[in-house]
Write the structure tokens for this entry.
Amino acid sequence: MKIIVSGAGQVGFHIARQLSAEENDVVVIDQSPDLVRRVGDALDVQAFVGFGSHPDVLERAGAADADMFIAVTYADEVNMVACQVAHSLFNVPMKIARIRAQSYRDPIWADLFSRDHMPIDVIISPEMEVAKAISRRLQVPGAFETISLVDGMVRLMGVRCNADCPVINTPLRQLTGLFPDLNIVVVAISRDGEGIVPSADDQLLEGDEVYFVADADHVARAMTVFGHEEDVARRVIIAGGGHIGAFLGEIIETEHSGVTARIIEANADRAHQIADMLEGTVVINGDVIDPEILDEAGVDDSEAIIAVTNDDETNILASLLSKRFGTERAISLVNNTTYSPLITSLGIDVVVSPRAITVSTILQHVRRGRIKAVHSLVDGFGELIEAEILETSGLTGKKINEADLPDGVLFGAIVRGEEVIIPRADTILRVNDRVVLFAQTQSIKAIENLFAVRLEFF
């Protein structure tokens, strides 16, 4: 596929890195010479300086032959106009735009992005996606990642192995013997920042971040197996009242029964605005790292602090201060990936990366074939994929150990009708099975081909 990425910031850079690693023809455009130089030096892509909304720039990028245009600059209007130009002048089939301002997303203006007006096929709202991701993490305390798949029947969970984890130093093959009724598969491990696709003989070590796929009905028991029996947070402080904080407050009010939230926002006008938006949420105007303000918010009696200001350092300090004053759990939004190896050792329980969440959301619309969902794991090491097996798939009727699978691929679950099947080597794959699998980046192209819709299907 030929893909043009407009915007070479964090999201654009990592989208280009992911897609170029899969041998797509990728062109990156940005108005910043420094960002373009960084992309050109680090990635095997074409990169040049220019505005993605200018027709001559898109022509130079080869838009006439492009299969997809992804606009992820910092300016909503540039992204929107760029998609319009890509459609009107170059007839690019798929256009994806990152749009932050929620006014554009109001349902009453839904017709704005139709093909007759401003044709954008997919709109990504990073702030909304981040708020949803944090909400999911609140639902399963003890997990730093939780993703629902196959209509909620399967979950991906990410947990950290602490010193008291009962299955530390236990070979993975023994988990089945120890817990015969537990429907889970460990599909990936992050150890010292490096991704691992585990074998049956691998052991879990203290400090490992483990990703496992589970039958949704078995999640609570699986969390106990990994030593996590934390209670759901009922009293929550949200540090930062920007778009993410406001969206999260709204989600908590509407979807988290029995949970109360207090939002701390430094800007007085914004604090009043949020207070008008949210009926059951207390909004406090003040500095999130001021001990008196934290005390006013009830930090010693809160069960979770969620720090989502626009400043990484403020989020980290607010989280650490709150835990020192008695908050049980800290969730911190961090954009700068260089902080990641340090943060968990400081005592912050969950790190949320807006870039990783946005990249995963975009990748869902890049994947071809009968692929239903995609989630990037371990900083681009691989992807968790939900897909459907068609009659024309090379997997139909084969046992998993007989399938021609590329290296670095692990099946996590198979859903057949209303049944969740934990796959074994001799499990036979059937037409219409919904499968959840993990694939390393270099194997994703082969996986796409396995699930492709071939002509004979019609």
About this structure: The two ends are 23 Å apart (CA to CA). The longest strand covers residues 184-191.
